[in-house]
Amino acid sequence: MNLAGRDIRYHLGRFLLTGLGIGLLLATVMAMGGIYRGMVEDALSMIRGAGADLWVVQKGTAGPFAEVSRVPEDLYRAIRAVSGVRDASPVAFQSVQLRQGERRLRVQLIGARGGALGMPPAVAAGRPIGAARHEMIADLRADLALGSQVSIGRLRFTVVGLTDGLVSSSGDPVVHVSLMDAQEIQFLKGSEAIRNERARLEADLSGRGPGGPDAASVAPLVQNTHLANAVLVALEPWADKDEVAARIQRWNHYRAMTGAEQEEVLTRSVIERARQQILLFRVTLLAVSTVIIALIIYTMTMEKTRDIATLKVIGAPDRTIATLILQESLGLGLLGFLLGWALIGQTYEFFPRRVAIEPVDQYVLLGIVVGICALASLLGIRRALSVDPTTALGGGAQ
Predict the structure, then answer these.
(1) What is the Cα–Cα distance from 79 to 52, expressed in whole angstroms?
(2) Coil, strand or helix: which one is 132?
(3) What is the pLDDT of residue 349?
(4) How far is residue 13's CA from residue 350's CA, in Å, rounded to a whole number?
(5) Residues of the chain below pLDDT 50
(6) CA-to-CA distance for 79 and 135, rounded, in angstroms?
(7) Where are the beta strands (DSSP E) in the chain?
(8) I need a labelling partner for 110 at 20 to 30 A (CA). Which of 95, 97, 274, 313 fits?
(9) Residue 134 CB burial class (10 angstroms; 0-12, 13-18, ≥19)
(10) Are 88 and 230 part of one and the same domain?
């Protein structure tokens, strides 16, 4: 006779409602884990989509995703001459606000030469960028139709292609434009700023006396836009990444990072704080679930005091009583887990950020839930084993 099953059927309504509450908590735990995995996948999709073996960035920096990095645009010519390099291309990265009528959208802007490293290897719809200026490829998450007109700063673009699944570590959709457009957006100052810069130069140079350069000749150098945030490098199949990276750093005085190092920068530095926050939130929710299960099992045990005493009177061993409490606790936890899994499986697509649900994460969580249920049942088991058998006869301790 399964005593736990009979008791659950007797209190079925409360058991199901409690399981639903635990399921909601566990669904949130699953969502938090999926959001973190989604953040990692989003971040890595941008790096892997670039198709680069090495990232050459400003010396002393960790690359454009972690801090400001600026290198000369024509650096790629020197890098192409390095043994083992198949191709090199300058790219620019910037987080900007895109405008479409009254709509405002935050996007990750990538500027690269047409058909070169940095551009998406394929488009889901439309075509690659063919013109030198004012064309854009946007990710589907930007919700921009082919042929639509959008503005960034002073420039206006036509969406000619769409990609699928390219987003930044912060969840912003990625848009690709030509390198010239990206340089103008990021490095070219506005008219008022240029006038102020020239006035400052004239004031500084006027105090140096005759013989020095005039402001007109120096201003173009200060307002130079022929810059990039990194140079992407593709290697020959036979080339060794570490050797080529060391050669670039030695002869060109820049930092060369492998794709794996860039991925580590994103996962260990850029989104590390978010990972810690999500982990703390998950631990808190699991602790709350443990307390809820323990309280429910203890309450159900208290209500069965006379029944447990009767079992003791008829000679039921303590192991049978402990198994009854443990089975009810495990049943409650497993019901909550199944309800939570079903809920997150039906709703994860509606989250504003990518939620990557991995089976291995669910199996680990299932093991944790089983452990939590076993731990939570200890309080009820302790109470059940302390019941006086005389309670069944109407006396004894309650």
Answers:
(1) 13
(2) coil
(3) 85
(4) 30
(5) 1, 215, 217, 221, 396-398
(6) 28
(7) 54-57, 71-72, 85-100, 103-112, 125-126, 135-139, 149-152, 155-163, 174-178, 227-228, 230-235, 255-258
(8) 274
(9) middle
(10) yes
Judgement on whether residues 106 and 246 belong to the same structural domain of the protein: yes
- Residues 221 and 170: their CA atoms lie apart, in Å, by 34
Q: Is there a domain that residue 48 lies in?
A: no
Same domain? For 247 and 135 the reply is: yes
Q: For residue 104, what are its two tokens?
A: 């405002």
User: Does residue 213 belong to any structural domain of this protein?
Assistant: no
Own/partner pairs, 273-280, CB within 8 angstroms, 24+ separation: 274/36, 274/39, 275/36, 275/39, 278/32, 278/33, 278/35, 278/36, 279/36
CA distances 377 to 307, 369, 383, Å, are 18, 12, 10
Task: Decide if 261 is inside a domain.
Answer: no
Ramachandran angles phi, psi of 108, nearest 5°: -95, 115
User: Which pLDDT belongs to residue 397?
Assistant: 45
Could you give the CA distance from residue 395 to residue 398 in angstroms, rounded to a whole number?
8
Residues 90 and 133 grouped into a single domain: yes
94: amino acid identity, one letter: Q
Query: Rounded to 5 degrees, what angle do the CA atoms 159, 163, 164 make?
Result: 140
Structure-block tokens of residue 336: 């909550």
> Looking at the structure, do residues 30 and 112 belong to the same domain, yes or no?
no
Claim to verify: residue 107 and residue 241 sit in the same structural domain: yes
pTM above 0.90, yes or no: no
Query: What's the total number of domains in the chain?
Result: 2
For residue 209, being part of any structural domain is answered with no
Task: Tell me the DSSP string of 310-359.
Answer: HHHHTT--HHHHHHHHHHHHHHHHHHHHHHHHHHHHHHGGGSSS-----H
Q: Cα separation of 195 and 213, whole Å? A: 18
What range defines the domain where residue 180 resides?
59-188+225-253
